[in-house]
């Protein structure tokens, strides 16, 4: 699949994400006004954050797709990490506010209203989210976009507070149990804070040029170690920027062979690493080994 088609598919997933988030924010705002349920408010906050995340992801997809230029020799992928760090701050703030409100409501319970209307909106949310996740996963499989794949997982995790809101509203309507609403909001706050920590930590590590996960480095080392005509390798270095992994390494080759042959070995190795780590950028330095087995 060519890069233009991949970009079009990724953009379509981003636009769908923004559209669904807009509909859900509007519907849940109405449901919260009607029911006064904190569990609905928790789901509303989650959808509002989804909207911000979706807009940022769409912008990141468009910006990251720009080719490297004179001012950005390594491309524009770091915008994904900057956007993710900002999202983590917003998610954490919302989680603290929601948790605080949940404790207040737990200590001073308040009756809910229009539970049926709230449940209908939450069911609509589940249906729209399910369709969106299906499309995002289909696009991610075809394009390999980590942004789309991550957004898909994010929306899938949103089903927890939505399901919690349905349970809380149902418990209020059928049994008059209102404290469950506060409990659901507290659970949602914990989920939000945990997600903020994970997203923010990953983005901060990438901005600080932290190396790729150990599993990725082991995969690269496995490719090099089993590659024909290579006597050894050293100085394997990696870093992650957005959805791209940058790889640098030195390989040791027979110093008596023609330069063209050595170049061909390096080119084949690069293609193999790209297959093992899709979307990466690989730089290989070739070190000649003399007849005495010493690297020159």
Rough outline: elongated
Supply the CATH class of the largest domain.
Answer: Mainly Alpha
Mean pLDDT: 79
Please state roughly what percent of the residues sit in beta strands, choosing from under 5%, 5-15%, 15-25%, 25-35%, 35-45% or over 45%: 5-15%
What count of structural domains?
2
Per CATH, the superfamily of the largest domain is Cation efflux protein transmembrane domain
Helix content: 55-70%
Cα-to-Cα separation, first versus last residue: 41 Å
Tally of separate helices: 9
| CATH-defined architecture of the largest domain | Up-down Bundle
- The secondary-structure element order is HHHHHHHHEEHE
Rg:
25 Å
Number of strands: 3
Q: What is the makeup of the main sheet?
A: 3 strands, mixed
Low-confidence blocks of residues: none
Order of strands across the main sheet: 1-2-3
Task: Indicate the structural class.
Answer: mainly alpha
CATH topology of the largest domain: Alpha-lytic protease prodomain-like
């Amino acid at each position: 699949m060519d890069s233009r088609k991949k970009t079009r598919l990724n953009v379509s997933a981003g636009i769908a994400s923004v559209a669904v988030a807009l509909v859900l924010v509007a519907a849940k705002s109405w449901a919260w006004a009607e029911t006064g349920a904190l569990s609905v408010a928790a789901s509303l906050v989650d959808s509002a954050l989804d909207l911000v995340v979706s807009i940022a992801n769409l912008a990141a997809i468009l910006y990251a797709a720009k080719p490297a230029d004179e001012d950005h020799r390594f491309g524009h992928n770091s915008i994904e990490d900057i956007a993710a760090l900002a999202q983590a701050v917003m998610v954490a703030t919302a989680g603290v506010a929601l948790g605080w409100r949940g404790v207040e409501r737990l200590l001073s319970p308040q009756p809910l209203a229009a539970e049926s209307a709230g449940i209908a909106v939450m069911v609509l949310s589940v249906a729209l989210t399910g369709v969106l996740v299906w499309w995002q996963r289909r696009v991610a499989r075809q394009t390999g976009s980590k942004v789309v794949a991550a957004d898909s997982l994010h929306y899938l995790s949103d089903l927890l507070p939505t399901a919690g809101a349905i349970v809380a509203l149902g418990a209020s309507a059928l049994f008059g149990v209102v404290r469950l609403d506060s409990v659901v909001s507290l659970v949602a706050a914990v989920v939000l804070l945990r997600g903020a920590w994970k997203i923010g930590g990953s983005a901060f590590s990438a901005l600080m040029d932290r190396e790729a996960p150990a599993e990725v480095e082991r995969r690269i080392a496995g490719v090099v170690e089993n590659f024909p005509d290579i006597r050894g390798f050293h100085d394997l270095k990696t870093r992650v920027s957005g959805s791209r992994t940058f790889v640098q390494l030195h390989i040791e080759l027979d110093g008596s062979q023609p330069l063209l042959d050595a170049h061909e070995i390096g080119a084949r190795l690069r293609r193999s690493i790209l297959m093992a780590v899709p979307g990466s950028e690989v730089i290989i330095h070739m070190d000649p080994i003399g007849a005495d087995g010493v690297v020159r």
